[in-house]
Write a structure and sequence with these properties.
The structure holds 2 protein chains of 2 kinds. Chain A is an all-alpha fold. Helix content of chain A is 54%, strand content 0%. Chain A has one domain (4-18, 27-78): Non-ribosomal Peptide Synthetase Peptidyl Carrier Protein, Chain A (Orthogonal Bundle). In chain A, helix 1 packs across helix 2. The radius of gyration of chain A is 12 Å and the shape is globular. Chain B has 2 domains: 16-257, Peroxisomal Thiolase, Chain A, domain 1 (3-Layer(aba) Sandwich), CATH 3.40.47; 269-413, 3-Layer(aba) Sandwich (Peroxisomal Thiolase, Chain A, domain 1), CATH 3.40.47.10. Chain B is 32% helix and 20% strand. Chain B contains 13 helices and 17 strands. In chain B, strands 1, 2, 5, 6, 7, 9, 10, 11, 12, 14, 16 and 17 form a 12-stranded mixed β-sheet that branches. In chain B, strands 3-4-8 form a 3-stranded mixed β-sheet. In chain B, strands 13-15 form a two-stranded antiparallel ribbon. The two termini of chain B are 34 Å apart. The chains are: A mainly alpha, B alpha/beta. At the A-B interface, helix 1 and helix 2 of A face loops of B. Chain A: InterPro entries: ACP-like_sf, PKS_PP-bd, PP-bd_ACP.
């Protein structure tokens, strides 16, 4: 099974929570806090649910709440698989 | 929390006088204030066959649909989390702000509030997510369902998007809501808030919303749009569902004077609401009581009113009650009456907001838009229904009447007013 990449994450983020006109998701966002990217807790919940559905994994809430940047969320996905 | 900053009192202004300094309309017969107004004056209606879903299997197959996708005017970020009704409300609110000339960034932090009404909530969004829950399971339900279905969501999204942090609220009073929201916003002005963005928006044109409307038993089953909604007509047989509504900026006169050079659409001079007595009591229903109380609140006599914008339920016993109330308050055939729901259809709480917008434009321009051709009006109604062509309006004030399913009655008096000094 191939890895879940930053490109995959950006696609899911765009699909389920849209894109903030003032933020370029194609820029260097790996360590940018989600709130700076315009994604609040609900947008992240929606994103995480979509990832769980796509990959058939479960990510516990305490893991998710610690995933404050795209890099940390990708790490959480990797360790959930 | 810090108290709202009171509006500075300019000389000659009356604190709590509520001017309408911004307006936008979304209706089946006109997207935007002036297009809506032209349609009404030229007698264009927006009722047609339902296209948003397959309605062929339902007893009512007509609606007042808005053609333009409101999402085109919004940032992509807001689309996944909003129902169509909220998209309409957000697009409309942005135009109201622009039209008013008020800059939220320049206003006191708690200086502008938001008070909206809505009767159905985000039905289409809710139907989709319930379908997902039923067909696929909980993981497939959008996290945004938590608020996107909710009546209060329009107020919340408008407040968040524009940073309007003043006293805010939501009213759920059925079709009367458009007037009740404005009445509540006026209370906020009297307590010292300089301006409140208010009004009502509705859109529930999906099977779930349609079935809910059908259970009320008041929808027309006509197939031709010209027969569909005949308020006060002898052949009246129900109204037509619709989407739309109107939002407006209600601004304290002192605030508008301080800004200077504002041309208000008019003044919300009086408001009142009451409930019907319990069924079976034998006492008359509420429209006359609400109308008299609104006139008293505005300090005007029936003879000062140049036009009545009626609810026009297009249901015979409800029409008879409303006509009786109008004839009782004003005298038989004594005041011109119009019912624009014959053109727009009836978008829940948005319907009374549309009536209010039309009344404001009527006092601005001194013209009463005609009701659609409803055929013969029963002589017993004793009302002077304006049909055919617009009629010049006498005087400078109009009365708007609304009723909501379940016994709500509301009335608003609007009055013409001149520009504020520069």
């Amino acid at each position: 099974m191939k890895g879940f990449t930053l490109a995959d994450l950006k696609r899911v983020m765009r699909e389920c929570a849209g894109e903030d006109e003032n933020v370029d998701l194609d820029g260097d966002i790996l360590d940018a806090p989600f709130e700076n990217l315009g994604y609040d807790s609900l947008a992240l919940l929606e994103t995480a649910t979509r990832i769980e559905r796509e990959l058939g994994v479960r990510m516990p809430e305490e893991v998710l709440s610690g995933a404050r940047t795209p890099r940390l969320l990708l790490d959480a996905v990797a360790s959930a698989r | 929390m810090t108290a709202p900053a009171p509006a500075s009192t300019a000389p000659g202004t009356r604190r709590g006088t509520a001017l309408v300094t911004g307006l936008d309309v979304r209706a089946a017969n006109g997207d935007g204030t002036e297009e809506f107004w032209r349609s009404l004056l030229e007698g264009r209606g927006g009722i047609g066959p339902i296209t948003r879903f397959d309605a062929s299997g339902y007893p009512s197959r007509l609606a007042g649909e808005i053609a333009r996708d409101p999402g085109e005017d919004l940032p992509g970020r807001l689309l996944p989390q909003t129902d169509r009704v909220t998209q309409l409300a957000l697009a409309c609110a942005a135009e109201v702000l622009r039209d008013s000339g008020l800059d939220p960034a320049g206003a006191p932090e708690y200086g502008i509030g938001v008070v909206t009404a809505n009767a159905a909530g985000g039905f289409e969004f809710g139907q989709r997510e319930l379908e997902n829950l039923w067909a696929k399971g909980p993981l497939y339900v959008s996290a945004y369902q938590s608020f996107a279905w909710f009546y209060a969501v329009n107020t919340g999204q408008i407040s968040i998007r524009h940073g309007l942090r003043g006293p805010s609220g939501v009213l759920v009073t059925g079709q009367s809501g458009g007037l009740d929201a404005v009445g509540h916003a006026r209370r906020m002005l009297r307590k010292g808030t300089p301006a409140v963005l208010t009004g009502a928006m509705e859109s529930a044109l999906c099977p779930w919303g349609h079935v809910a409307e059908l259970t009320g038993g008041r929808l027309s089953t006509a197939d031709r749009s010209e027969d569909a909604c005949l308020p006060f007509g002898e052949r009246a047989a129900g109204h037509v569902v619709a989407e739309g509504g109107a939002l407006l900026m209600l601004e304290d006169e002192a605030s508008a004077h301080a800004r200077g050079g504002i041309r208000p659409y008019g003044e919300v001079a009086g408001y009142a609401a009451c409930f019907d007595p319990p069924p079976g009591s034998g006492r008359p229903t509420g429209p006359a009581r609400a109308a008299r109380a609104a006139l008293a609140d505005a300090g005007v006599e029936p003879a000062d009113i140049g036009a009545v914008f009626a609810e026009g339920a297009a249901v015979p016993d409800l029409d008879a009650q409303e006509a009786g109330a109008i004839a009782g308050v004003f005298g038989p055939d004594a005041v011109p009456v119009t019912a624009i729901t014959s053109r727009t259809g009836r978008p829940g709480a948005g319907a009374s907001a549309l009536d209010l917008a039309a009344a404001l434009l009527a006092v601005r321009d001194g013209l009463i838009p005609p009701t659609a051709d409803v055929g013969r009006v029963p002589a017993a109604y004793r009302i002077d229904l304006v049909t055919g062509r617009p009629r010049p309006m006498a005087g400078d004030a109009a009365l708007v009447l609304a009723r909501g399913y379940g016994g709500f009655n509301s009335a608003v008096v609007v009055r013409r007013c001149g520009p504020t000094p520069r």
